[in-house]
Amino acid sequence: MSISITNVSKSYKDVKALQNITFDVKPGELFGLIGPDGAGKTTLFRILTTLLLADEGIATVAGFDVLKDYKTIRNSVGYMPGKFSLYQDLTVEENLNFFATIFGTTIEENYDLIKDIYIQIEPFKNRRAGKLSGGMKQKLALSCALIHKPKVLFLDEPTTGVDPVSRKEFWDMLKRLQKHGITILVSTPYMDEAALCDRIALIQNGKILEIDTPEEIVKHYPKTIFNVSANNMYQLIKSLKVYEHLYSIYPFGEFVHYSDKREKFNSDDLKHYLETQNLSDIQINQTQPTIEDTFMELAK
Amino acid sequence: MNNKNVIEVENLTKTFGDFTAVNAISFEVRKGEIFGFLGANGAGKTTAMKMLIGISNPTSGKANVAGFDVFTDADNIKRNIGYMSQKFALYDDLTVKENITFFGGIYGLSRARIKEKANALISELGLQEVTNQLVGSLPLGWKQKLAFSVSLIHDPKIVFLDEPTGGVDPITRRQFWEMIYKASYQGTTVFVTTHYMDEAEYCDRVSIMVNGKIEALDTPKKLKEQFNVATMNDVFLKLARSPSPTLPKGKGVNTDKDYNHEKKSSPLGS
Are residues A129 and A244 in the same domain? Predict the structure, then answer.
């Protein structure tokens, strides 16, 4: 196993940041840690990168124990923290050279690994890192995390606050890195990114809700989901919330996702009810659950 | 100004040196509308929003917000709008109640009115248990819901929300949007930016900025038809993909021959 975590717990005073976390990440896997702010994602990353001690439990990274072999781990992993942590006063090239030197290597030695990414920021290699745009900072940080050809790459919320275009480009890069045999543990609050991982762990309030492939996770949703729309979204939500057969209702884009308590759901009943609530243009169609539906169901 | 419009913008432009951050944008926002203001990082959204809320002087063009001119009446704009962002909304070192009282005071509400508003707001959000706790100790989702309520404390005509739901869990994110629907239903105009494309679908109309210009503006339904795609995410990818501010000239899909990356990306930072 590239990463092995067994019963890891961590508390800050009264706050249980992580509770009995157990999972493995296989070599070469792209594994996603999916959960909102405060779920415990960063705490877990810091434990695995040997920057924080767990209260309980065992963890190994690339076969090394996070306690006993912390020095070896630091040499064999790449870590891109959520907060931009490069030297703002050094230029793009100076930052990259600095990290290469620290790890006893050179930019040339592992250039093939970062080429795809670095080539995009190379025109600005003499610009100070602090003056880069968000998207470019992210690419530089990834280049620096890769410069020593790590076995395992830790990416803590690399796409938070990043627009959908740059997010897509970033995930394309991760897919290419995976082909070099690097194991990647990545965290994100964006549920749509979960579908791009080989396996995911849904995490909230320090607990793992579920671990599986994205395809399997959505199969665990216990109900049939319907897309419902009408002429007024606010009224529709209000009316559905007090409907006697309601199981759950969540806005999803132009529709709401509705599921019913009954075994046999009759859409005419619901349509009739909504009409009595003065709604019009009512549409009810069955749809497939998403990872977000599953997450909300588990987090309820 | 048309009395149905609460925002009217015509050829609004902002330049920093020889860089044009906002390039002659024009649009209107109607009363009670939920208006989504989208764009890639660095497209000029924040600069445009700063002009609309009266904290940055436009270089040229016209803009009227809540009945006031951005050039001559910026202070009145600030009094008549609400604003919240992901980065700054409330004071972490003040309690829930203190924050409400503080912002009520800033907007000139009477003590009696503040008390009334505070009680209504606290009970509506179910914050009775934590009124005397520091805001910094609350979960992010609660903070954001509280911040939104506080931004409405002076009953503004328009509320500006700058990425209000970043990092918030999916359930709270939806509760937040239900609050937006409610505000809109009660006649408040909501001007919102987001990177969640499912949230773009919740808006009545959406504009998409690319390199300082508004390249598309319509209902989510019509935009999807226009670009012949199934989701707003795909609309966004089609529009904002080229020329991307994160791709240097001649690389990837950037096909704009006149596009000077060095200039474009410098003043805005991230």
Answer: no
In the sheet with B213-218, reading across from the earlier edge strand, the strands are B81-85, B158-162, B189-193, B34-39, B205-210, B213-218
User: Is the pLDDT reported for residue B246 higher than 70?
Assistant: no
All residues of chain A having their beta carbon less than 8 Å from the beta carbon of residue B171 are: 250, 296, 299-300
Query: Backbone phi, then psi, for A285, in 5-degree steps?
Result: -140, 140
Residue B257 and residue B249: Cα distance in Å, rounded?
8
Q: What is the chain B residue with the closest CA to A297?
A: B171
Give dist(CA A65, CA B32) in Å, integer: 58
- Beta carbons of A165 and B40 less than 8 Å apart: yes
With CA atoms as reference, the chain B residue closest to A121 would be B248
Q: pLDDT band at residue B1, thresholds of 50, 70 and 90?
A: low
- The per-residue pLDDT for B248 is 38
A164 lies within 8 A of chain B by CB:
yes
Residue B234, both tokens: 């795909």
CB contact under 8 A, B41 and A237: no
Residues of chain A numbered 110-129 and touching chain B (CB < 8 Å): 119-124
User: pLDDT tens for residues B158-213?
Assistant: 999 998 988 788 888 999 999 999 999 999 999 999 988 889 999 999 999 999 99
Chain B residues near residue A234 by CB distance under 8 angstroms: 178, 181-182, 184-185
What pLDDT does residue A9 have?
97
- Are A169 and A265 contained in the same domain? no
pLDDT at residue number B257: 32
Return the CATH number at A249: 3.30.70
CA distance B253 to chain A (A): 11
Q: Does B141 touch chain A (CB under 8 A)?
A: yes
Question: Using CB atoms and an 8 Å cut-off, which of residues 73-92 of chain B contact chain A?
Answer: 86
3-state secondary structure of B152: coil
Host domain of residue A235 = 225-299
With CB atoms and an 8 Å threshold, state whether A234 touches B184: yes
Best of B195, B247, B261 to disrupt the A interface by mutation (most A CBs within 10 Å)?
A: B195
Interface residue A233 vs chain B (CB under 8 A): yes
Burial string for A129-167 (b: 16+ CB within 10 Å, else e) reads: bebbbbbbbbbbbbbbbbbbbbbbbbbbbbbbbbbbbbb
Does B181 contact A237 at a Cβ distance shorter than 8 Å?
Answer: yes
| pLDDT tens track for A141-176 | 999 999 999 999 999 999 887 888 888 888 999 999
Is position B2 within any domain? no
Chain centroid to Cα B73, Å, comes to 20
pTM attached to this predicted model: 0.83
Q: With both helix axes pointing from N to C terminus, report the angle between A164-178 and B232-240 in degrees, rounded to the nearest 10.
A: 90
Verify that A113 and A180 share a domain, yes or no. Answer: yes
The domain in which residue B170 lies consists of 31-58+83-265
- Is A202 found in the same domain as A126? yes
